[in-house]
Amino acid sequence: MNKVYREKLARFGLTQPQFFLLTALYEEDDILISALAEKVAMDKSALTGLLDRLERDGLVQREASSQDRRITKVKLTPKSEGLRRNLTNLYEEINASFLSRLSEEEKRVFEKVLHKLEKDDFADS
Q1: HSE of 68 in the Cβ direction (CA atoms, 13 Å)?
Q2: Fold (CATH) for 2-119
Q3: pLDDT attached to residue 67
Q4: Residue 60's closest CA among 30, 39, 87, 38?
């Protein structure tokens, strides 16, 4: 899977983690960093490094809250909005390709496992 993503993302100059972070932002833009970290199941320090690179490349911007400067939101930029259709199509294309290799029963089991993992907050791990 990593190889497929790496090859497909090369033309956009994105890494797989950057791609998934943008995909999450396409689902919910103008989001608190803490909420984004939770959404992508990433600790804030790792997320900060990814955001630094995306911000350097003009794909996101961080903005402090006008009410509380300790609170920072992440927003997509016009440049990342311009990539939305291509990256969303790529995401759907790759997922469809991987899922096409599974039988209907395997897909049901896969979705069940993913749902279970999404529900678990892993607080006791």
Answers
A1: 5
A2: Arc Repressor Mutant, subunit A (1.10.10)
A3: 81
A4: 30
